[in-house]
Amino acid sequence: MAKRSKESPGVELRTKLAPSQDRARATFELILDVTGQLLGEVGVERLSTNMICVRAGITPPALYRYFPNKYAILREMGRRLMEAEDAIVLEWLEQGHGHLDGSLEEAIKQRADLLTRVRKVAREQPGGEWIQLVMRAVPVLREVRADSVDTVARAIVDQLGARYPSVDKGRLRTAALLSTTLANAASELIVDAPQLEEELTIETARMITLYYRDLVEASEGDGPAKES
Amino acid sequence: MAKRSKESPGVELRTKLAPSQDRARATFELILDVTGQLLGEVGVERLSTNMICVRAGITPPALYRYFPNKYAILREMGRRLMEAEDAIVLEWLEQGHGHLDGSLEEAIKQRADLLTRVRKVAREQPGGEWIQLVMRAVPVLREVRADSVDTVARAIVDQLGARYPSVDKGRLRTAALLSTTLANAASELIVDAPQLEEELTIETARMITLYYRDLVEASEGDGPAKES
DNA sequence: TGTACATCAGTGAACGCGCGTTCACTGATGTAC
DNA sequence: TGTACATCAGTGAACGCGCGTTCACTGATGTAC
């Protein structure tokens, strides 16, 4: 979660009091939950603290007890989602599923599984599919997402860099950024075209896997993979 | 630009009067221009019609003469950007640059050129890099972007479908959606990491090209491209 | 186990502000004769 | 070329509303003895 210091001036994003009683914890969670619902229904720009309070059945001061403003709520939601997603990806990497030595189809299948699991986490969080979008569209929140992408990219570079030392680290990092970005973008595409979920998942996995393969093979001394 | 009918109820998105005099046209353009500037500075949610008027040096009724609300302004900006980008892609396809018969490196270079040109169009429009984001994050505007992606995807299916008839049309469409999505996502990544522009462009081109290659080769009777 | 007290959690009501939007109007531009 | 009139473009000032936020308060929960 890194650099909390570099926050843009004027907008406090940290949560305030941490709830200590059960009732309070329930309220805190309810606020996040309701915000997630509303995100999908009305979008960020029309979302307001008053609206959240009405839907949650609480009064504004209860909300302000925990959050200084709506951006802090969104940030907390984003932080949690990123954390959950990152955990899945990091675990997957540690288990060595990111390696490219076995069969191509097997590697694709492994990656498709990963994509499915990451999306499942997002779907289980109310409004989860919208939060990623919000993290990008709201300037003050971009950092949360950037941190997450950075964390994942680093882990990929570490893992694959160790396994395939001949691959240029810079290119590996670019590849990591791109594949992470494509995976996220594909998720958002599925929100618009849910009937294509399965195909999009497998094809995204294929696209990423083919690319890493080429990257690894090209650097292993036998030149660009398959020039024709 | 297709289905104008399916607009969400309650939010009018069409522009109102078309300006007929030079002064009016200048005002119209100024509004779009200023909105683009502000988009990057404050984000969609804090953007307001009053704010636009102040920056443009006009009074609110002047703005309301042409636009019913801020979403109509954003829609017009989005519509223009999508139109300009689509035109470039469609022309590129018609010139046959999307074919995959020549050398791999040549195909990648052609595609990188395309990506660069598309991005250039976005950059030339004030706030252009933010508009794509807004088109996705604001529910009422998603249709504009979806239409554009759809247009491009269709063109790709037509072109490649004619050239490589053995490729399954459904898969081709999925591929078209994915590649378009990746290209867009990469553009947004470059906003955050401008120093990586060149690498990200070439690697995005590589990723897409490798994928199409595999798709085409796999269906041309010799099975999956390179199983190991 | 009961009670007094401290702390935590949430309420009711209101505030000032900037939002989107509109009214009745003035000034600029174009056009007919 | 000049003038009268129609239309177009933009102004000044205001509106009601919902926004974010805060005040002084009540009720709920936990704790010490």
Question: How does this model look, in words?
Answer:
Two copies of one chain form a homodimer. The first copy, chain A, contains nine helices and no strands. Chain A is mostly helical and 228 residues long. The longest helix of chain A has 25 residues. Chain A is elongated and about 65 Å long. The first copy, chain A, starts with 21 loop residues before the first helix and ends in a 9-residue tail after the last helix. Chains A and B meet through α6, α8 and α9 of A and α6, α8 and α9 of B. The structure holds a DNA duplex (33 and 33 nucleotides).
How widely separated are the two ends of chain A? 45 Å
Per CATH, the class of one domain in chain A reads: Mainly Alpha
Helix vs. strand class of chain A: mainly alpha
Q: How would you classify the quaternary structure?
A: homodimer
Largest interface: A-B, 49 and 49 residues
How many strand elements of chain A? 0
CATH architecture of one domain in chain A: Orthogonal Bundle
Strand proportion of chain A, as a percent range, falls in under 5%
Task: Write the SSE topology.
Two copies of one chain form a homodimer.
Chain A: H1 22-42, H2 49-56, H3 60-66, H4 70-94, H5 104-124, H6 128-137, H7 142-163, H8 169-192, H9 197-219
Helix pairs in contact in A: 1-2, 1-4, 4-5, 4-6, 4-7, 5-9, 6-7, 6-8, 7-8, 8-9
Chain A binds a DNA duplex (33 and 33 nucleotides) through residues 17, 19-24, 27, 48-51, 58-62, 64-65, 69-70.
